[in-house]
């Protein structure tokens, strides 16, 4: 069976990566349709060895399309996803528009593929925030082994998490610093070149930012509502891959060696953990890769049953495009979706 797949936001950071991943993983497609705004009608994007021309989302008829990978931002998704879903096309959405809707599954296939069964109410499935996706892949096997009580996480998030404008701003400001031009923040609230910014998304009433709140709410929905999580999310001058320093308190004892063994066998996780200079992963090395990498696993002697580790993953892949394609694959595997048109 082959599926007609539309990509809404195909010219963006995540949309382009979706096209790469569909081709790399030989996802069973009968046709791929790249969609964007009126700004990008006719813009060419690559799909494997083919070049496809973008069409306008507003005028596209979804009635014979099976899957829409939606990556055009929250406002577009709020407006379009229910209409697309009502035409019998399953929407896998990357924005935060639907993540907290009780009728929309929020899925990381390595963690809660079973939640996909509930997608029919709206025909929409939500992809988590990039910083949550990589974290829950690493937390899940540890939770199964020793039951997580509390997580304290500090993130070091790349500029690609803020879209192509975020990458352009880091590039432009870095150049400006070298040639002594004025540095003007536009996308980020302060200068990002040779700096870092302890604010991602807007402030909430309690002083946390929305990005920090998302990590807490999404970890509960995907993994376990009993887990307490507190986060500090920081934007750093790195182009691709988010890094996280993670401290976890468990109900049961678990040693660093046990955790290392468990994580080595866990789906979606790669452990790189040698206690020597360079014996760990950095964001530069994780870019373009699929895994949620774990390094620097050690026991935290300041609490009972505590572990600390370092977690890095490509935010455009496991944090967005790869997870969305894995959701589509899991739906096929679980026979939750059937192609509207039989392949010729
Ligand atoms: N970057 C990440 O790490 C990450 C991770 C998880 C989730 N997400 C989410 O994924 C979504 C896309 O992020 P991104 O980083 O790819 O952003 P981006 O690079 O800024 O790309 C945005 C895409 O949306 C399209 N678009 C914007 N307005 C549109 C409209 N009115 N109608 C149709 N298409 C429209 C743009 O098309 P034009 O070329 O026509 O402007 C472009 O293709 C966002 O919701 C983001 O929160 C991103």
List keywords for this structure.
6-stranded mixed β-sheet, single chain, 6-stranded parallel β-sheet, 344 residues, 9 helices, 24% strand, binds NADP nicotinamide-adenine-dinucleotide phosphate, alpha/beta
Explain what you see.
With 344 residues, this protein is of the alpha/beta class. It has helices at residues 13-24, 74-86, 109-112, 130-146, 163-178, 210-222, 256-265, 283-286, 317-333; strands at 3-8, 29-36, 44-47, 50-53, 55-56, 67-70, 90-93, 124-126, 148-157, 228-235, 242-250, 269-271, 292-299, 306-313. Strands 5-2-1-6-7-8 form a 6-stranded parallel sheet, with helices on both faces. Helix 3 (109-112) links the parallel strand 7 (90-93) and strand 8. Helix 1 (13-24) crosses helix 9 and helix 4 packs across helix 9 (317-333). The termini are close together. The mean pLDDT is 97. The protein binds NADP nicotinamide-adenine-dinucleotide phosphate (NAP). NADP nicotinamide-adenine-dinucleotide phosphate is lined by residues 9-15, 36-37, 39-40, 57, 71-74, 76, 94-95, 130, 160-161, 163-165, 315-316, 319-320.
* Backbone structural class: alpha/beta
Order of helices and strands: EHEEEEEHEHEHEHHEEHEHEEH
User: What gap, in angstroms, lies between the N and C termini?
Assistant: 10 Å
| Percent helix | 25-40%
Strand content: 15-25%
Strand order of the largest sheet: 5-2-1-6-7-8
- The total beta strand count reads 14
């Amino acid at each position: 069976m082959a599926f007609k797949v539309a990509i809404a936001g195909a010219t963006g950071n995540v949309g382009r990566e979706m096209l790469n991943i569909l081709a790399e993983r030989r996802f069973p497609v009968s046709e791929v349709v790249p969609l964007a705004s009126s700004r990008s009608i006719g813009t060419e994007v690559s799909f494997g060895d083919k070049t496809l021309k973008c069409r306008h989302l507003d005028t596209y008829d979804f009635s014979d399309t099976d899957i829409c990978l939606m990556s055009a931002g929250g406002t577009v998704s709020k407006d379009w996803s229910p209409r697309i879903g009502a035409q019998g096309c399953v929407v896998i959405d990357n924005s935060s528009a639907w993540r907290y809707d009780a009728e929309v599954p929020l899925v990381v296939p390595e963690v809660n593929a079973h939640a996909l069964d509930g997608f029919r109410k709206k025909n929409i499935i939500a992809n988590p925030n990039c910083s949550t996706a990589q974290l829950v892949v690493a937390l899940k096997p540890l939770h199964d082994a020793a039951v997580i009580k509390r997580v304290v996480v500090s993130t070091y998030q790349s500029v690609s998490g803020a879209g192509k404008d975020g990458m352009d701003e880091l590039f432009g400001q870095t150049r400006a610093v070298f040639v002594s031009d004025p540095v003007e923040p536009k996308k980020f609230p302060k200068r990002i070149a040779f700096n870092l910014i302890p604010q991602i998304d807007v402030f909430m009433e309690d002083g946390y930012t929305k990005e920090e709140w998302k990590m807490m709410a999404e970890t509960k929905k995907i993994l376990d509502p009993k887990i307490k999580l507190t986060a500090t999310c920081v934007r750093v001058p790195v182009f691709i891959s988010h890094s996280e320093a993670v401290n976890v308190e468990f109900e049961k004892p678990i040693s660093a060696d046990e955790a290392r063994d468990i994580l080595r066998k866990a789906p979606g996780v790669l452990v790189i953990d040698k206690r020597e200079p360079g014996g760990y992963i950095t964001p530069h090395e994780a870019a373009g890769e699929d895994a949620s990498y774990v390094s620097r696993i050690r026991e935290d002697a300041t609490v009972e049953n505590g572990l600390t580790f370092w977690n890095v993953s490509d935010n455009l892949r496991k944090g967005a495009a790869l997870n969305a394609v894995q959701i589509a694959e899991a739906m096929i595997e679980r026979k939750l979706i059937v192609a509207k048109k039989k392949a010729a």
